[in-house]
Amino acid sequence: MNNRLLLTALSLALSTSAWADFTATPEEARGIAKEAYLYGFPVVEMYKTLYTQAVDKKSANFKAPFNRIGNTAKAFTAKDTAFVTPNADTPYSFVWMDLRAEPVVLTLPPIDEHRYYSVQLIDAYTQNFAYLGTRSTGNNGGHFMVAGPNWQGQQPVNMDRLLRSETNIAYALYRTQLFDEKDLGKVKEIQKGYKVETLSHYVKQKAPPKAPKIAWPKPTPAMSDTPDLFRYLNFMLAFAPAQDAEKDLLARLKKIGIEAGKPFKLHEFTAEQRQALEDGISDAKAEFARFKKDQVDTHQVSSGDLFGTRDHLKGNYLYRYAGANMGIFGNSAEEANYIGYFVDKDGQPVDASKHDYTLHFDKDALPPADAFWSLTMYDGKNKLLVANPLNRYLINSRMLPDLKLDADGGLTLYVQDKAPAKDLQSNWLPAPNGPFYGILRLYLPKSEVTSGQWKMPLLTPVNSQKQ
User: What is the domain-level CATH number for residue 431?
Assistant: First the structure.
């Protein structure tokens, strides 16, 4: 065979290999890629956090290996970058669970009845499949078993509750309320009481055979914004048995090479095929931008719509994507309510390089929450906490005794990049010199929040364009 025939045969072999994985027409592929991006983005964003917290021991954000707990006995600051829109009120504890071989048992200690805490259980799709803690199981502690989709053993008689994850990789995200800096010692003691062990260790029996070792792919900088996302999605879907409700969707995704556990052969696709995938991703991003502007920024859709169980989300992958994009691992509505301040009262994007702002609560109209409320500031560019001279990232309900009330008993907060007058600085929430957003969190929100009886105040620009 001469060189020309050899090259032709090789080209044909590569083309056949690509089309074996990519059976959609480019036009069809664009629509499937849009759907796949909205569906897969949360899964891949979760993987990025998993890798940095449980796999890469050299990472500054590494917490603990699988099935062990990592505690952060401090509130988040501007230096913490593991995930976007972090909460700075409640020091976190982290458990990445590998449930392939056997369940994991989470033991919680008794906690002061006046302190809020929760353990949010999240599957690989970023769905909150269960909760432990103040609202759901109380503050008396207990033993709780988390099992994967394939486990068929017996629940020990002294186990308080069995919780099922539909994926073999799952996340337990603990939040322990911090009252103030002087309270850190108490939080550390509580965190020491959080215990994690495999079921076999808990019942003192021989461990089952270990699950196969996992070759974790290293994240890349562009993995969430390009067709490379689908390579990581294929990897993660290997830990997520197909759900009946998604069989038709997964059949469509297979037409562009997305299939659980299979290599995603982007390098073998034609230029036209790759362009179709990129166009589909652009379409997905454009749909999200419209959705955020028209429904999220205007508060027609709340955080409670974006986070929750599979049954709660009802297959709305745009909602799940929006939650992961704006604040991954957000709480379900009954646990916490999140109100985003992305625009001012005139509907304009908030930007502290252009305006100073006030946020006014009328007398007796502070956010209604059974646990506590908190307003946290974030940089609009990187979605992280904002470095500032006060090291103040939030204003919350426990700070009320130190805040200055208005003459009529109301409360006005000052949201700006430069410090206000000295007598107002107690009420200053520092903003970056540019775009920002605030998140008002209500932990254990009262019924008047979900019913709409309580009306959130809006950010008001208080000066003309800054010079």
Answer: 2.60.120.1600
Which pTM does this prediction carry?
0.88
* Four-point Cα dihedral 184, 437, 354, 345, nearest 10: -120
| pLDDT range class, residue 465, cuts 50, 70, 90 | low
Question: Are the C-beta atoms of 293 and 42 separated by less than 8 Å?
Answer: no
Percent of the chain with pLDDT strictly greater than 90: 87
Residue at 266 is within a domain: no
Domain count, the chain: 2
- Domain holding 188: CATH number? 2.60.40.1610
- What HEC string does 298-359 produce? CCCCCHHHHCCCHHHHCCCHHHHHHHHHHHCCCCCCCCEEEEEECECCCCCECECCCCCEEE
Distances (CA, A) of 379 to 10, 274, 352, 376, 385: 51, 33, 10, 10, 6
The total number of residues written for the chain in this structure:
467
Q: Kindly give, in sequence order, each residue whose CB lies less than 8 Å from that of residue 219, ignoring residues fewer than 6 positions away.
A: 47, 48, 51, 52, 232
- Of 202, 217, 233, which residue constitutes the final position of a domain? 202
Q: What is the pLDDT of residues 82-101, one digit of tens each?
A: 778 888 899 999 999 999 99
Among residues 187, 202, 217, the one where a domain terminates is 202
d(CA 96, CA 376): 26
Position 467 in a domain: no
What is the tens place of the pLDDT at every residue in 201-257?
A: 999 999 999 999 999 999 999 999 999 999 999 999 999 999 999 999 999 999 999
Whether the pLDDT of residue 9 is over 60: the answer is no
pLDDT tens digits, 123-132: 999 999 999 9
Question: What is the bridge-based pairing of β-strands 357-361 and 436-445?
Answer: unpaired
Please tell me the distance from the alpha carbon of residue 291 to that of residue 203, in angstroms, as a whole number: 49
Classify residue 176: in a domain, yes or no.
yes
Is 243 a domain residue?
A: no
- Please, are residues 456 and 345 in contact by the beta-carbon 8 Å criterion? no
Give residue 432's domain range: 335-461
